Amino acid sequence: MGISIADIAAGCYAFSGVLAALRHRDRTGEALPVEISLFGALTEWMAYPLYYTAHSGAAPVPMGTAHPTIAPYGAVTAADGGSVMIAVQNEREWPRLATDVLDEPALAADPRFASNSQRVAHRAELDAALAAACARFPADVLTQRLDAAGIAWSRLTELADLADHPELAAAQRWLHTATPAGPVRTLRPPGARATGWQPTARCPRSARTPPPCSPNWRRSNDRPHRMAGPFLRGLRGG
């Protein structure tokens, strides 16, 4: 993936685990340990394919944008070459997609596609039929029809397009952060308020330079970390 998903996963579970431990201490007075491992965090993230393998007897295989247990689900190519992700999440949406979006009522009546399990079993035929039907509409027309029918969709774009995504601007996610090389655009953390929130420190010149307002900073290879003491004492109520 190109990013440290094990570290990110463990950090997320450590954060929620600490909050749960604090609430438990507030209610009961008992201080509980919070123990998170990289392996444990990634195993939790892999729970869905793990359960699928354990209970079906077959491991899921790479399927691109498709979903192993939902159909139709994945990217289709529009008449102008644009890629649109379509997801039918329940049985009410399937006839709306076939009839209202694609003008193909015969697909909705086809017994091979009468239920999600049938559509998954006949995925190849379904994908071929959807590809032919979607190829008649430009991407903008297709997404307008999907909106009108209440069908979930998204555009399949390149990573470079993400910086200009309208949702980032609407949520005021972009900030200007000071660095030794000048200000750069950085993302406001999810969950932080869009108004009245600004980064309060400059980026350090290097990983070995203590950031401002961090008198307890030490390099990561120094153990134990000096910041851990007051933090753990807070959890223990001391």
The shape, in one word, is extended
Average pLDDT level: 85
- Named CATH architecture of one domain: 2-Layer Sandwich
- Tell me the name of the CATH class of one domain: Alpha Beta
Unreliable stretches: 213-238
The secondary-structure element order is HHHEEHHHHHEHHEEH
Describe the structure.
The protein is mostly helical and 238 residues long. Among the domains are: 5-45, no CATH class; 73-156, formyl-coa transferase, domain 3 (2-Layer Sandwich), CATH 3.30.1540.10. It is 43% helix and 9% strand. It has eleven helices and five strands; from the N terminus they run αααββαααααβααββα. It has a three-stranded antiparallel beta sheet, covered by helices on one side. A two-stranded antiparallel ribbon has the order 4-5. The longest helix is centred in the N-terminal third of the chain and has 24 residues, at 5-28. It is extended. The two termini are 41 Å apart. Mean pLDDT is 85; it is low at 213-238.
Topology:
Layout lengths: L4 H24 L9 H8 L1 H10 L16 E5 L5 E5 L5 H9 L3 H5 L6 H6 L1 H12 L4 H11 L2 E4 L3 H4 L3 H5 L3 E4 L6 E4 L40 H9 L2
Antiparallel strand pairs: 1-2, 2-3, 4-5
Short précis:
With 238 residues, the protein is mainly alpha-helical. The chain contains eleven helices and five strands, in the order H-H-H-E-E-H-H-H-H-H-E-H-H-E-E-H. It is extended and about 60 Å long.
